[in-house]
Design brief:
The chain is an alpha+beta fold and 175 residues long. The chain is built from 3 helices and 6 strands, in the order αββαββββα. The chain has helices at residues 2-15, 50-57, 134-146; strands at residues 18-27, 33-44, 69-74, 77-89, 103-114, 120-128. It has a 6-stranded antiparallel sheet with strand order 1-2-6-5-4-3, with helices on both faces. The longest helix is centred in the N-terminal third of the chain and has 14 residues, at 2-15.
Amino acid sequence: MVVQFYAGIVTLLNGQQAQGCAIGLLPDGDGDFTSSVLTVSTVTFPGISPRLVLADLMGATSGKMQEGLRPMELPCGPGFLMERTRSAPIPGRADNEAGGPSDGRVWQGTVAVPVSGSHSIVMVQLVTAARDLADNYRDILRGVAYTLTFNDPNADQGIADERHTGSDDTTSPFG
């Protein structure tokens, strides 16, 4: 049963083009623990510049910026921080169980960074049920986003990664 659960999660992450996922269990300030999930993924927009997609979110085309969206300057280039509180299902709880619905409120923060020379946006997302600690989680998300790079770590060693992204007109920044 546990292996099937993990296989399902891996399948879901692969379907979302996730490069990495980390599940955290952290103190919540009340002596209990709360969980968080950090995911790094790529969203591809074939034939469309990712900068135009993000410019549209910033309101450059409509004059109205998306709520909760802020630009941020990162070492790898311009990025955008989006955050919101939304409903999320609580695993294992039925609607009529424990006196309430089977959803809870979570804080979700996302940093979107257009990949130069491609049709992709890298998304770094952090989600937690500890909404009262959103400021702390925002700082964590920003810290992770500041480590994002599109430079090949093997380039200095003369090791080329020959992988390809699968698109005929765009190659991976790592080879």
